[in-house]
Amino acid sequence: MSTHPSRDDAPVLEVTDLSVEYHGEHRTVRAVDRVSFTIGRGEIFGLAGESGCGKSTAANAVMRLLREPAAITGGTIRFQGRDVLALDAEELRTLRWREVAMVFQSAMSSLNPVMTVGDQIVDIFTTHERLRKSVARERAAELLELVRIDPGRLRSYPHQLSGGMRQRVVIAMAVALRPQLLIMDEPTTALDVVVQQEIMAQIAELQRSLGFSVLFITHDMSLMIELSHRMAVMYAGRFVETAPARDLFAHPRHPYTRALINAFPPLSGPNTPLVGLREGVRFTDIPDLREEAPGHWVAPVPVGTVIDGGRA
Amino acid sequence: MSTAAPATSTRTDPPAAPDAVISLRGLSVDFPVGGLFSRTVVRALRSVDLDVERREIMALVGESGSGKSTIARCIARLEKPTAGQILVDGVDVLRSEPRRASRAYRRKVQMIFQDPFGSLNPAHRVHQFLERAARLHGRATGAEQMRELVEELMATVDLPAEMLESRAFELSGGQRQRVSIARALAVGPEVILADEPTSMLDVSVRIGVLNLMRRLRDERGISMLFITHDLASARYVADRTTVMFAGELVESGASMALMARPAHPYTQLLLSAVPDPSRAGSYDPAERARLRAAVLEADSCPFDGDPGPTCSRTEPVRHDVGPAADRHWVRCHLYRPAADVASRALAVDTVDPTDPAAR
Ligand SMILES: Nc1ncnc2c1ncn2[C@@H]1O[C@H](COP(=O)(O)OP(=O)(O)OP(=O)(O)O)[C@@H](O)[C@H]1O
Ligand SMILES: Nc1ncnc2c1ncn2[C@@H]1O[C@H](COP(=O)(O)OP(=O)(O)OP(=O)(O)O)[C@@H](O)[C@H]1O
Ligand code: SF4
Ligand SMILES: [Mg+2]
Ligand SMILES: [Mg+2]
Q: Fewest CB within a 10 Å sphere: which of A11, A204, B87, B130?
């Protein structure tokens, strides 16, 4: 369903050779390891991968949200051509509110527990757009409808909403100020597929009409393939494959990508036992990506590596 | 809710299924919403009857906001129902332990919470969560034995033992989810209430956890209420699946049968919405509009002439569909669950792009 965005202008986001390390008390983790990607204007870029492989860390780095003991140990991040790593506090504030918005993976617990969701949304408009309260209320109600919540719920406190409702409120807040880049880290884990489809269709609609870009992180490969223009698969801090989404689905080249695509249980047919990645298989020393087909980049796999998830 | 109690007595399902570990009867929950002086209530659950049997995985799927977590929280005794009974091994626990759950109860019934970011104290270390759970419930006495137990638990959920020293805030979403699973297992429960336990796991790790759930059921006889939005996972692991819509159960049956022949329009809508990249684009918009309308608007009674029990517009009964072995029933097509419940998600019309909300 996704048509390719025009690529004549410079990318909105350009990440080059990014490395991030956590220096914990007991372990040092290189969570992101020499990762490079670009997101074009109006492009939806999907990021999938193993649990714990560094997706959230990469997203947080783009927003400059990493704190001690995390450190960006290498690489550059450019947003609209500006060096994000060199921004001062004031510029960062603008970046985070007006230019890049993020739905955190912890969205369900990221709302202020002592304020109604209505007041929280109204606050965004009164502080950042200097709207009058009454106008802001109207806008807040419209936003809730966008994410399929009855505007009557503006008076609810976060704990009075279900997990998925809180997630939807946070999505609404992220699009409130019409950012140029929207980062969504697992935004639909608590949504049923009907509501998920409707909301993602709304976001895609907004995205097309306003022309913003999206960095979309999810474990739901089907959703990602349906929605993204291009996507990347990450493993142990490294990218192992990037390609146009449809292409990656039709011709996954890296064995880890194949495992992700083939290992989910079907909705029809016999219920055969499945296995995840074959026990003990780990990829280490993942090499840089090579372009194996136009626009389709893959990390070469050492010959003799046998791993395939899927039917046991 | 005042009608819940009399309604229970006219129900057609048996009062207490003999094999049930957990039986809910007429469970209703009303929540006050709005400010201090508001008298509005949200009817989160409306007279729910549900059985989870021994050695059974029962999946609970349904609309966001339909009351799934509320059911689990009631069973875990974190929420007090407005009306109805919770029978555990045939004992009405709201009577036998009216104020709060006993220690024995908490040992027997463990809950895995929906939000792994909100349910693990970020400053605590992984081994503390596991040791506390194990100790609280009298498992593993010596230090040596404890070490073995927690390391085994980590391996079970596919996390490295080094991570035992990590604090919760150092963990990724999926790592936290696995710690939550391990914490529930540490207690050695008979019943696990798992609220979206695998939503942040990649398919490969997810399959591992689903296989673990099967093993716990088959080898240790553990029963589970498995709340999920992933219908494929429900089908893969759950013996039966129950579908919720707007605070009510609308359909239930053997998972394979239910997903092959969904009877309720909401279940059909739900299954049709599962993204499938092998279908070009999304599902057929015309079919979807038809289903949507069927969910929201009354049409005709498919059980006209059914010699079974009769329904009323306000209290429809369960109609059996398919062979008895599938235990597949559906509750009404024409009647739709009370609209003042949480059903708002679907009640909003598709916003057209020229609409102010999408401007
Ligand atoms: N504050 C921290 N201190 C130490 N290690 C951390 C910290 N935050 C994250 N990590 C580690 O960095 C790695 C990457 O974490 P990240 O949250 O980016 O993973 P992810 O890809 O988002 O995973 P998931 O899909 O499970 O959310 C993990 O191994 C995690 O344990
Ligand atoms: N403490 C509370 N106070 C007021 N309303 C509540 C409270 N807890 C839940 N609700 C309401 O009850 C309904 C059911 O919520 P519940 O959390 O059980 O839904 P759910 O099926 O788990 O949804 P999700 O899939 O989004 O997590 C929702 O309308 C919710 O807003
Ligand atoms: S409640 Fe539903 S199933 Fe029962 S008679 Fe009415 S329409 Fe038919
Ligand atoms: Mg993450
Ligand atoms: Mg819930």
A: A204
